Amino acid sequence: MLKAGVDHPQSGKTDNVPAPHDPVRIAFELGECRQRGLDWLDRNVKPQKPVRAEALQALAAQYVEARGPLAVGRIAQIKVLLTSGIDELAGQGHASDAAMLRELFFGIPGDSTIRSPGELLQSARARTGENESRFRERRTRVMRSFAEFLVTFATAAHQPPAAEVTVVPHTSHPPVPVTGNARESEHFVDLLARAMNVTIIGITNERLVPYLREALNRKRRHGPPDAFWNSLRIVFLGEPLLESINDEREEFHDPQEALRQRRLEATWARRSVGVFLKRTNPSRWTLYNWQYLPVLTGSMFEFEDHRKLVHLLIRPPRRPSFDGLYIDIEDNVDEFSAVFEDIVHQSTTDSMIVPVGAPSGEGFKSNEVRLQARVLKDGSGASGWLPMVIVITWRYRNNRAEPILQLRTIENSAREENRLSHLGGHILQQDLARPDGRLLPEAHKTFDSMHESLRSAAQRIVRDATGSDPGDSLQSMATGTYLYPDMEHLYFFVFALELTEATHFLRRAEMHSFRLAELVAIRANQALTAAAQLCRAADVTPRAFAAAAEVVALNLILHGHADLATKVRELTEKTAYERAIVAAAISELIVDRIAPSWMPGGGELLLEGFAGWHYREFFSVLLPLYAKVGIDQAADLQAEIEADEIRREARDRLAEIYRDEDLMAVMPMEL
After folding, report:
1. Is residue 10, in this structure, part of any structural domain at all?
2. pTM: predicted TM-score of the whole model, two decimal places
């Protein structure tokens, strides 16, 4: 009999298997392994017995024997098979299924702790935004299809490679010196994948992320799932020197446009490289800025046997870097290594420093600084407030004023993926010390919404997304707060900016226009999802449930679900079964919201809703600002809420709760 809760295939029976690897049996065993956790398959403590998983183990042993990655013991072999299979599945265009499988079995890349199977399951479901039944159905389907895929994938590993493909053995080294065309990215990726220590000196490094991703996939395919470089150093050319670069953009015969595009690419590369590396390893990488004209561009690789190879790029004038030549030189006497080390030594780290302090009247007072990479860590318990900027962008389309929001993806954001937000970011210490690039004797400690440093920060955020300086078009609008129970709080300075038809965003910035009715529907779906999650939440104290139920109920009232709000409020002392009945009724009203992604291969993403502050302050801050700048239908909706006493009181009470640090600290989930 199949165990309850295991992700088993519905066909069930596996007796008299005619094939050497039965996908039905393997799907069942994948479910068992997922439920126990890969690191605990051999646990033999009552009432648990080791998970046998004989069919999956045999398939893993076959794959490891064929491919040759070092893996001792069945758990290591199963991990190698699953890691390689998931990577291959993603490479074949099934990124969504691969992401779910990776999180169910291994957690989020970069996790420094081994999380329990229950935590991984909850995290994976929360990331999809699906209700429990829909997620269970999808999980079963993905497990089933992945089992069939694994059988084909592992069996194919025994087949010899196609004649036209040249396979470089994992431990081999290319003959040196080697020359070639820089368009041959496979050579560079292979060096990246085999090296232990890497230093990359580039200009904008605008095509680097895909190479890093593929190289890291190869490292993890042939090694542990958390493999990384011992040291990875990436040097960018400083922004003031981008004007001196001769590349393909010089063909525009427009120096300002060439510089604008160069800055955009460099800014995006810094952001995307940082976001990618932050997700994959917390510490063994550093980004640098080089403030002198480059004496060389290229990379230095150090391998496990301590060999050093220098990969130099030679770029013709008015040509992109990938259209040049490369030459590989073995550095036996550390001559080139000394040049690379000198460049790194003379560079400045690209570490962003953020002020930390507390709200002060209508402004903010800073009393210390922290590295931006070390703040906003879930569960850190860090105290203090971080000042932030939000820029509400909007423009007229078909004679209607519509807001433009960013779709946050894994490519452009380190937090709150698959959610919507306006452009925003940290106020940096450099904004306080160099407003508009003007160096001050001392960085500002106290500032309000009209301060030059805040406007400078807002201009930087807009410039990074558009490549154009908004100048004096930014309007200071409001302030706002966001309370976290387990890390720093946020204090927002909100600006507004009307964009013209001439303003263009890069597609990868994921800036999309929305009508107000669409935004309200997206938020309503998010409120219903939160209500259903609360009703299904386990191990929540009556006090915490009551506090969360009030927040959920007030949000439901604002979206016209007063009847459901009453039912949720009445569940505090009810049983789990009674709560489940209400959760099922709420789930019937949830409609999947899809957002198109403009990234290559992005397709459509399941939209989870709004980023935190935008969700909490939608009716109390955002809607009035929308009405003030003339967003179509915003004034009508605001007047409608003002005229409805119940909804008006719900809005005001919700704003009070979201600003109450004691109440927010007891919430059992993000609301």
Report:
1. no
2. 0.66
